[in-house]
Amino acid sequence: MRKCVLPILVLASTLALSGSAPAVEIWQLEPGGTITLALDDDQLDSRGLSLVNPRHTVVPDGSRTAYLDGPFYSFRSASDLDVRFETEAGRFQNFVGDEHARVSVVGGATFQTHHTMTRAALEPAFLYDFSVEIDPPSESPIFARILSADPNLRAPLEIHSTGIRFDHETGDFLVRMGDVRISEEWARAMNQPYLAGQVIGTAEMDFHATLIEGVVRSVELEDPQGTGQGSTLDVRLAQLYGMTSFGREGAFPNGENAFSSATTSCNVGDVRVAWHAPMQEEHPFIGMAIFRETDGILEMIGASDIKHGFFALSSSQCNSCNDPTGGDSLGVNCSDTYSAGNNASQHYLAPRNEVNPFTATWERCGSHFDGTNNDCNRSHGGSNHSSNLTHRIRVFDSDLNVPGASFSHEGAYYVAADDNFANNVGWAPFTAINWTGSSWSFSQSGITPNPGPRIRTWGDMQHEVTVPDDGEIWLATKVIDNGDGTWHYEYAAYNERSDRAIHSFSVPTGSATLTNVGFHDVDQDGGNDWTVTTAGGVTTWTTDDFATDPDAHALRYQTMFNFRFDADAPSMNGTATGLIFKPGSGSTLEMNTRVPDTGTTSALVGSEAYEDFVLSSNDPNPFSNRTKLSFSLARDTDVTLSVVDVAGRTVDVLHRGLANAGVTSVDWDGRDSSGSRVASGVYFFRLESSDRTATIKGTFLH
Question: Which of 383, 362, 216 is nearest to 286 (CA)?
Answer without folding.
Answer: 362
